[in-house]
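During the reporting period the student researcher (J.K.) took over the structure-prediction task from the postdoctoral fellow and processed the backlog of single-chain submissions. One of the processed entries is reproduced below for the supervisory committee.
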Amino acid sequence: MDEELLALHKTDTWDLVPQPLGKTIIDCRWVYKIKTNSDRSIEQYKARLIAKENSQQCRMYYEETFSSISKMTTIHTFIVVTLVCQWHVSQLDVKNTFLNGDLQKEVYMVPPPSVSHDYRYVCNLKKVLYGLKQPSRTCLKIFLL
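J.K. obtained the following structure tokens:
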């Protein structure tokens, strides 16, 4: 959890602002996962801060949803082209991918329980969090640039 909070702080994910009148404030929660190796030994413990999307309304917080999916024919074509052209292929794993995407709309969220704050303040999100309806397209744009 500390690692996730540090990443949120480093990427300047939100500003604590006085709660605006007439704006919907979405809630958040922590999701925990234990990653295991193939022999079922524990590799690492993961914690992610998730924005509860159920209170987001279409056209107010987002215009469209998106999930990037690769078809196997696309992957096969990519492999064949790289072999024919003798290109070098590398794999990249980006930690906290969604925290690299800037949010286009105003979204206010209740601060996580682990963040000390004045009860009258909320998080004005500047970066995308897991659980929001628009993060995948935002992150894909970053990698295509």
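The committee noted the following: The chain has one domain: 2-144.
J.K. will present the remaining backlog at the next meeting.
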